[in-house]
Each structure stands twice: as C-alpha cells, then as structure tokens.
C-alpha cells in the first residue's frame, strides 16, 4: 500500500468513528431530553396490556359463572338467589332467564333483549288471539317471525270469517319465505270457503 492510500484509509476510519461517536452523543442527548416521557410511555403501554388481559380474564370468568348460573336456574326456576347472581353477572342472560321462566309459567315478562321481547309479545298475542299486536309485530321489519305473524293474523281473520282480509294478509308473505307453504294451504282453504 502506498502512503496516500494509508492516509485515506485512516481518514475514512476516523470519519466512521466520528460518526459513531456523534450518533452516540445525539442518542444520549435525546435520552436526557425525553427520558421521563419515554419511561412514562413504556409504563402506560405495559399497564394497558396488563389491564386489558386482566379485564378479558375477568370477563371470561364472569361469562362462565353466568352460564353456570343460567343452567342452575333452568333446573330450578324457583331459585331466586341464582337469578339475582345472574342479574349481577350478565344482564342479557338474566333477561333470557326471565323469558324462560315466563314462558314456562305462560306469563309475559318484561324483557329488553330485542328478539326475546318480540317473541314474548308474539306468543302472548297468539295465546290471546290479539290481531292488533300481531299487526304491530308485522310492521317491524326486523321481527324474526314476521311471515309467521302474517300467517297467524290471516288464520285469526279466517276464523272470524274475514276471508278477503285474510287473503290480502297472506299475499304479504313472500314466495321465498318458509311460511309460504302454510300460506298457500290457507289460501286454498279460503278459496274453498268462498
């Protein structure tokens, strides 16, 4: 190697070392300037991860306990302690328990779970042969048994001898509905009566 190459090599090595020391000094200044902020962010992240894991663990335990309480309540509808425990653990399962108890006793319970509330109203309207409630339920687009409510309304109208009204209600049941076959049978019965 020539002397010039040696000098260039040494300059290059010094330049690399200077850059390394310079970046180390910059990193040290950054650390001193933002040390508390960095520590706070790390502590917050660790606390959030621990908190989220703890909450999900507690939620899972509550879910298991609520399901066990519902199973106990189904076995014994008179067990009010289990019902109270269920109310504390899971509001929706508590509503399901109230629905099941009311259904078993042929009563109407006040429930706020949308589908259960509608089913409770539907069963009550069928048992009381209440066309007004059935009509209200059929107006709700999200009602789970909308087509069956139409069919039952038409059936009640047929029993009252209101055949034309029953036919118009049955026409509201779409052909793709599972209740359509029942509707067709009732339509044939109505046609035979007319």
Protein described:
The chain has a domain at 113-194: Serine Threonine Protein Phosphatase 5, Tetratricopeptide repeat (Alpha Horseshoe), CATH 1.25.40. 81% of the residues lie in helices and 0% in strands. With 194 residues, it is mainly alpha-helical. The longest helix is centred in the N-terminal third of the chain and has 73 residues, at 3-75. The N and C termini lie far apart (117 Å). The chain has eight helices and no strands.
Topology:
Blueprint: H1 3-75, H2 80-89, H3 91-104, H4 114-128, H5 131-139, H6 146-159, H7 163-170, H8 180-193
Helix pairs in contact: 1-2, 1-3, 2-3, 4-5, 5-6, 6-7, 6-8, 7-8
Q: How much strand content do the residues show?
A: under 5%
Task: Just give the CATH class of the domain at 113-194.
Answer: Mainly Alpha
What order do the helices and strands follow? HHHHHHHH
How would you describe the shape?
elongated
Mean pLDDT: 82
How big is the Rg?
Answer: 36 Å
Overall SS class? mainly alpha
Low-confidence stretches: none
Sheet having the most strands = none
First-residue to last-residue Cα separation = 117 Å
Find the count of extended strands (DSSP E, 2+ residues): 0
The percent of residues in helical segments reads over 70%
Number of helices: 8
Predict the CATH topology of the domain at 113-194.
Serine Threonine Protein Phosphatase 5, Tetratricopeptide repeat
Give the CATH architecture of the domain at 113-194: Alpha Horseshoe
Features:
Serine Threonine Protein Phosphatase 5, Tetratricopeptide repeat; single chain; 194 residues; 8 helices; mainly alpha
């Amino acid at each position: 190697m020539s002397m010039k190459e040696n000098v260039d090599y040494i300059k290059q090595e010094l330049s690399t070392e200077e850059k390394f020391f310079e970046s180390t000094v910059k990193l040290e200044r950054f650390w001193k300037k933002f040390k508390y902020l960095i520590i706070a962010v790390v502590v917050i992240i660790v606390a959030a991860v621990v908190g989220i894991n703890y909450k999900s663990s507690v939620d899972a335990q509550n879910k298991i306990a609520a399901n066990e309480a519902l199973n106990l309540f189904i076995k014994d509808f008179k067990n009010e302690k289990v019902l109270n425990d269920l109310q504390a653990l899971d509001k929706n399962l508590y509503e399901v328990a109230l629905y099941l108890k009311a259904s078993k006793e042929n009563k109407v319970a006040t429930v706020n779970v949308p589908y259960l509330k509608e089913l409770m109203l539907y069963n009550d309207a069928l048992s009381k042969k209440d066309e007004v409630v059935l009509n209200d339920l059929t107006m709700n687009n999200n009602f789970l048994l909308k087509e069956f409510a139409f069919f039952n309304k038409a059936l009640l109208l047929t029993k009252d001898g209101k055949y034309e009204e029953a036919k118009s209600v049955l026409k509201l049941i779409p052909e793709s509905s599972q209740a359509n076959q029942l509707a067709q049978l009732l339509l044939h019965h109505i046609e035979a009566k007319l």
